[in-house]
Every structure is written in structure tokens, then in C-alpha cells.
Known about the structure:
The structure holds two protein chains of two kinds. Chain A is α+β, with helices and mostly antiparallel strands. Chain A has one domain: Winged helix-like DNA-binding domain superfamily/Winged helix DNA-binding domain (Arc Repressor Mutant, subunit A, Orthogonal Bundle), CATH 1.10.10. Chain A is built from four helices and two strands; from the N terminus they run αααββα. Chain A is globular. Chain B has helices at 3-12, 17-30, 36-57, 59-95, 104-135, 140-171, 180-183, 187-209. In chain B, helix 1 crosses helix 2 (17-30) and helix 4 (59-95) packs across helix 6 (140-171).
Amino acid sequence: MTVQPLGEFEQIVLLTVLRLGETAYGATIREEIAAKTDRDPSPGALYTTLARLEEKGLLKSRMGDPTPDRGGRAKRFVKVSASGLAALARAQRAYHNLMQGVSLPGFSYG
Amino acid sequence: MDKSKLAEKILSLVMEPLQAAAVVGDLLEARPARSALWFWTNVGQTFCATLGRSLARRPGFVLGVAALTVLREIYYSVLLGLGALVVLCAWNFIATPNGTPIGAPAFFYYANFACRPIAAFLAARWMVGFWTTGFSKGGDLGAWMMMILLRPLMAYLLSLVITRVIWLFFHGVQMPPFTLWHWWSGELWLAGLVGLALERRRRYSALVKN
């Protein structure tokens, strides 16, 4: 089976979910992406990406408990699955390989 | 109705009800710092993005379900039309034994139009039921919209067959042509909306119980 490569926004979402750990859900993911990447993703783009990643088996989700500040609505927490980690590692490896021997002003690839 | 409830209902048309509730919850969390316009813009954007995705994900399947539903609507329409024809012919015979009865074809013509909303409602219910029993997650609105798009084509084909062949063969006159008004009379929209609302409520209740 051919493994579809991850798109840029998919990688951003997966990395953000990894960073947030147990507290990753729609609102926090958006805030974290806005804080770390200087881009404010639209909810439409974010939720369709989350759904796509879940369909691919790269993310897992679970419903939390309803909270009053959300009008009694539950949060949908997500976490990266083992295949999600593998896909992310593969994508990052590709970036890393491409960056070998390339220098960008004001940036060093760790 | 509370605005957030309304937003949840709108999003429930294109995604799982629990997912829709979670999305609205996320937007409410961010809303204190934002305006109502921001909230509704994002609801609209999420709705469009999810609908577009559900259509693009399996277009062949969506088209297939839509086509089946149109056929189902025609089946119900003919069945109900024939039933009405029998009843009206009997009534015509009993009520006006000495008068000038209206011909059966005219009965069928009017009966067909009277039965179309019922047939459309049954077909819409069937389609929504089909989609909400595990074949799709939030794709039912997409299939329903496709059905609406397919309908003019089917109506045109039907009008070709009925008007130009059968009617001319028996009567030598042409039936009133199908007009845009007949195609887009709105009965299917209404039936579809009612069907969706009923199915969603049933499905949401089942999810909450579980």
C-alpha cells in the first residue's frame, strides 16, 4: 500500500498535537498554531484536517466531559497514533535530508 | 432559540452531532474575545469546508445514492399516482354517472402532481435513512444536494418519454411542457429538510442514550 505523504498543514497539526499532549483539542490546537507559526488557521481548515488525519489513522480522538464554559459541550481531545508518529518522522526526515548542505539566513536546522 | 444551539444544528447537517457540539464549544471558548460576526463567519466556514470535503471524498458514491434516490422518488410517484388514479376513476364513475367525466389521463396528470410532494418526502427520508445508518459520516447533505441537482435532468428525461411518446400516441396532443417551476417547485427541498431534521434528531437521541 502506498503511504500518502503528509501535507504542510497536516504536519503542523500533528506537531501541535504532539506538543500539547493530553490537552490537545480544537481550540488549544488553533491557539498553539497561531502562537508558534504566526498564522491563524480557519476552523474549517483545522477541523477538516483533523478529520482527514483521523480517517488516515494518524490521529485518535476521544470525547471529554461537558464543561459549563462551553455551554455544556464536551471537548474532543486528539492524540497522535503510532502510525502518525511514523508518518511525521518520515516527513521530517525528508526535510532534514533536503536541508543538508543548505544554509538559510538566520536559521539552523537542529 | 439560543444562537449556539442554532449553530450546532447547522453544523449537525454536515457532521456527527457530537462533533458539531465540540466544534461549537471550541468556538464559544474563543468567543469572549471575539465578536458575534467572527463566531458566525467561522460556523459558516466550517460548514462549507466540511460539506466540500464530504462531497470530494467519495463523489461516485454520493452520485450513486443521489441517483438511486431520484429513482426511488419516481417509483413512489408512479405508485401513488396509480393509486390515486384508481381512486379518482372510481369516484368519477360513482359521483358523475350522468355527467361528463374527466378523462383518466387528466386525472393521472393532476394526481401525479398531488402525489409528488409525498413521493419526494418518502424518497428524501429513504436517502437520509440510508446515509445515517453507517454508510457515511456527515455526507447526507452532500448526497441530498446532488439529488436536487440530478432532479432537473431526470424530470427532463421523464417529460421526454411521457409527453412526447405516450401522450402523443394516445391523444395526439401535447401535455403542458415541464417548466422550470415544475423542476424547482421546492417540494423536495422542504421534504429533504424535514427528513434531515427528523433523522438527525433520532440519531442524536440514539447517540446520547448510548
